[in-house]
Amino acid sequence: MDSKQFVTQIADINENFAQWYTDVVLKTELVDYGPVKGTMVIRPYGYAIWENIQKDLDARFKQTGAKNAYFPLLIPMSYFTKEAEHVEGFAPEVAVVTHAGGAKLEEPLAIRPTSETVIGTMYAKWIQSYRDLPVMMNQWCNVMRWEKTTRPFLRTSEFLWQEGHTVHASEEEAVEETMKMLEVYRSFAEETLAIPIYTGRKTEKEKFAGAVATFGMEAMMLDGKSLQAGTSHYLGQNFSKAFNIKYLDKDSNQKFGYTTSWGVSTRLIGAIIMAHGDQRGLVLPPKVAPIQTIIVPIATHKSGVIEKAKEVESILVKAGIRAETDIRDMSPGWKFNEWEMKGVPVRLEIGPRDIENNQAVIVRRDTFEKITVSLDNLAECVNAILEQVQSNMLVKSKAHRDARTIEADSLDGILSGVEGKNFVKAGWCGCRECEDKVKEVAQATARVMCDEDGVPEKCAICGKPAKHKVIFARAY
Amino acid sequence: MDSKQFVTQIADINENFAQWYTDVVLKTELVDYGPVKGTMVIRPYGYAIWENIQKDLDARFKQTGAKNAYFPLLIPMSYFTKEAEHVEGFAPEVAVVTHAGGAKLEEPLAIRPTSETVIGTMYAKWIQSYRDLPVMMNQWCNVMRWEKTTRPFLRTSEFLWQEGHTVHASEEEAVEETMKMLEVYRSFAEETLAIPIYTGRKTEKEKFAGAVATFGMEAMMLDGKSLQAGTSHYLGQNFSKAFNIKYLDKDSNQKFGYTTSWGVSTRLIGAIIMAHGDQRGLVLPPKVAPIQTIIVPIATHKSGVIEKAKEVESILVKAGIRAETDIRDMSPGWKFNEWEMKGVPVRLEIGPRDIENNQAVIVRRDTFEKITVSLDNLAECVNAILEQVQSNMLVKSKAHRDARTIEADSLDGILSGVEGKNFVKAGWCGCRECEDKVKEVAQATARVMCDEDGVPEKCAICGKPAKHKVIFARAY
After folding, report:
1. Mind listing the pLDDT tens digit for each residue in A17-31?
2. Would the ipTM clear 0.90, i.e. be above it?
3. Is B455 found in the same domain as B424?
């Protein structure tokens, strides 16, 4: 909060991307490390981004008919063992409550790493007949997965997310829901975060523990690595059989439901930072920026300047723009640096000569373009520029992603491709050995399959006939 | 979810209020019991009320300058011991994580029962100078306090709440913040929940563990018991000294800050139920009702009826009213019962004859008054009725509260007063013995002090000179 800490340096984005990331998230006060290893504190500037994400996504969920609910944090350990793959996947990273209220518990309780088990238990109780289906619920909550390393927003033991859980009468309907929610995420990422996404099915190795099929969305970061930004799982009858989610069908037979689950987390904030940032710091998409326009009055000692700046602020705020005025006792240049670092999409400068000429100077964060605008119709003008920033950011990151998507037909090609910081599309025979080989040789993983893109004849790794086309990349 | 379960009976509200409450929260699908003892699941209909509460309160908090943030769930056990009263108050009801990631932890971690300790630790790191003050943050989160009994919304091991935490340079400013947030809660309860509140300082016995002074808000429930609906704590320098929250003042001296904290929880939903309900079930204040107007088409087999109902719905929804149409294949009478039980403030019936006459019939949930309205200007009309319901509910609960607020000047008077289901105002000498005596004899506690009401000459319990006027009541 002390203003002095803003002036310090950020590591070189090209030479040390990891340090650049850490510098940016800490210095812009998005986040801080919590007292317990592996935890983070989301500070107001970071949390405001999350609130904007939540508001936008929540409306999209509700449009599909999903409703919010809240399920308990603590899950009996025995629940995890009911679905064999699920326990194998999650047991190693669970945090366990063994004592409470001054006594040892009869059964240890897990802090939810994800809630299929507890929500499945409740669904089994609530669902009786085909008339009760589909059931579509979502919860916004904290989850915990014990991690050895800490990277704010990317990898922490506790994080915030939403998890949607649905039950359907037929496989067809459940698969449709899985794909629909994947599309909700994809369009949200593009329209709101200005991040283009590759979506597709995950390989068996990379899928969610307990799913029949996992569909992921992968975003290209500025350092050429991929970030999994969200997943939508088709769970088939795996969980409905494990938790006895049955319904009486029209034909008077008891049948197991088909379930799905889908989630995105505060990781999305990491994606925004690494998809759009630059040497000066954050570049925030206007739709999620906590402050969309920062007003910096120039020559504040001159009478009427601060008043005019405040007047401009109130005009913008009335028009629905998140605008603030920086009237602190610091130089304009210092303020420019700080708000550039904090990624505010539009800066509006106003001084005595501007006031005389009934104008203001606008500087775009994405292009640094300077635009002199009239104070008449100012709100319309700022709104138009914010829209331009938003769409330009998508164009830019799409160009980056496309330029860094290449094809390869050999393991060498995959290796040099990912070393060159690319998404590499290649044929794959479908066997685990080849997938492991890519990991071993190129430190890259199969991000998603993109068969609709045209499956090559041969597997790039073993040369046998290919069954899929896969996007390989190094990933967060 | 199966429609059949709605038809069942609710216990008599006058004969067995506790069972009435349980029946209502379960049958209206606000809530269900979770698999772990002491936990609840907040179902969509209940969670939608919480979302409306959050939206309204959050805007009020932000108007005071508070910003949202998120702090870790897990707190090192050693943190609690830093403030002596605090550990004594909370240690017995803490849930403890001892194992994580497959290994035993070096230090056991508490699941937050409240976050003064972890937030204080971060504030100490962030605050350097007087320029950083005041700091005002709030978080919406889950907390856990191990409980032996379970009463959905009223007493569960895990619940949802918000906790605001502020730091100020002076005692005066911190006390002002404490009182300001109490007033935010009081006005919110009256304006939005239609619940009149007595506010005041708590006695030493009843205050928050670690506070200098706790101010509470007490609401009268229909059974004559009091419900503590929120608290605002002035913490003085207790936590700033324990956690080293210091700032460099203008005079170049290091000084400890003065802190406050304030919170309300999903208990508020319990307050709504018990302040407004009746034999038919819930009566929800329009401002927080998930559905404000339920449209029930009559004689749906007649052509055009469902279409007209849907048209009415879209007119209301466009006007910002939360309206839904019940087109299920059940009789109108069955639907009336169900939506009355679910507390929807306004029911709108529309059938062939209504359509012919360009009208609809509106029935208010609070008074059962029937009003025939024209379909012209329908939205304005419904909005006006919703406002009337909202204000009438406050008038009604205020009348109930006032009629049940009496004075007493003896222990007998207090006993017969609380047995008669009243708030009892009485003089108190200020000593713990007299307070304990009231508890022992009348099973009532000091809810808040109301000295501004005029302190009586004598303590109603011991007859010595009174120092305070206290509201005694039996309480949840």
Report:
1. 999 999 999 999 999
2. yes
3. yes
Residue B390 lies in a domain: no
This prediction's pTM: 0.96
| A-contacting residues in B 4-63 (Cβ below 8 Å) | 32, 34-36, 39-44, 47-48, 50-51
Beta carbons of B69 and A47 less than 8 angstroms apart: yes
Asked if A262 contacts A181 with a C-beta cutoff of 8 angstroms, the reply is yes
Cβ <8 Å between A111 and B73 = yes
Angle at A58 between CA A55 and CA A59, to 5 degrees: 90
pLDDT digits (tens, 9 = 90+) for B235-289: 999 999 999 999 999 999 999 999 999 999 999 999 999 999 999 999 999 999 9
Contact state of B101 with A141 under an 8 Å Cβ cutoff? no
Residue B466 resides in a domain: yes
C-alpha angle with apex A97: A96 to A102, nearest 5 degrees?
Answer: 160
**Residues A230 and A140 both lie in one domain:** yes
**CB-closest option in B51, B69, B73 to A158:** B73
Q: Based on the domain organization, do B93 and B207 belong to the same domain?
A: yes
Residues B13 and B124 in one domain: yes
The answer to whether A35 contacts B79, with C-beta atoms less than 8 Å apart, is yes
Burial of A220 (0-12, 13-18, 19+ CB in 10 A): buried
Determine which helix (DSSP H) or strand (DSSP E) holds B306, and give its type and residue range.
helix B305-318
The answer to whether residues A335 and A251 belong to one domain is no
Tell me if B145 is assigned to some domain.
Answer: yes
**Strand duo B254-256 + B323-325: pairing:** unpaired
CATH code of B423's domain: 3.30.110.30
Which of B1, B70, B121 has the CB atom closest to A160's CB atom?
A: B70
CATH number at residue A22: 3.30.930.10
Whole-number pLDDT of residue B8: 60
**Is residue B272 located within the same domain as residue B191?**
yes
Residue among B3, B118, B132 whose CB faces A2 most closely: B132
Is B301 part of the contact surface with chain A (CB cutoff 8 Å)?
no
Provide, as residue numbers in chain B, all residues whose Cβ is less than 8 Å from the Cβ of A100: 94-96, 146, 157
Determine, yes or no, domain membership for A398.
no
Same domain, yes or no: A298 and A155:
no
- B41 with A108: Cβ contact below 8 A: no
Q: Which domain holds residue B457?
A: 405-473
Determine contact, residues B90/B114, Cβ cutoff 8 Å: yes
B463 to chain A, any CB pair closer than 8 A? The answer is no
B72–A42 CB contact, under 8 Å: no
**Co-location of B149 and B11 in the same domain:** yes
For A26, phi and psi rounded to 5 degrees? -80, -45
Shortest distance between the Cα of A146 and any Cα of chain B, in A, equals: 5
Cα(A387)–Cα(A394) distance, rounded to whole angstroms? 11
Quote the number of domains for chain B. Answer: 3
Which of A 337-356 lie inside 8 A of B, CB atoms?
A: none
Domain CATH for B309? 3.40.50.800
Measured in angstroms, the CA of A67 and the nearest CA of chain B are apart by 6
**Residue B127 touches chain A, beta carbons under 8 Å:** yes
